[in-house]
Amino acid sequence: xxKLTPAERSALRAEAHGLNPVVMIGEAGLTESVMKEIxxxxxxxxxxxxxxxxxxxxxxxxIYEQICEELDAAPVQHIGKxxxxxxxxxxxxxxxxxKAGKGMREVTIVKASASGTKKPSVTKVMLKGNERVTxxxxxxxxxxxxxxxxxxxxxx
Length: 156
Description:
Number of strands: 8
Mean pLDDT: 86
């Protein structure tokens, strides 16, 4: 279990104040799928709130301690049915696909059918650095930046 200093815990409590619970633990209790969801949320956010539905305080404390032990998280705060947990985010290095060249990115374009009753068309397209997808699903190139004729005349 991760240990925090009182100053760190206080700063994390202040940061967690505005957060909404991302995981809810219901009647089934702490299942394997709930633990996976808590682990994924901790990896993504670092600091999360978990709501435990149930009136038994001892059971909530046991759940809190079990989560912290199994996921190597730090207990920040336990108020009523809300648990605040912290674990430093894992830095994920994204690998670029080998077929994409420098400045290229893959974009999925979904266009609704003209009649609205058929399935939308889905296409995957490689965009260059100066291209963008419009709201209508069309690809546009960035226009060259306009230069002032007066400034270009002065520079010559």
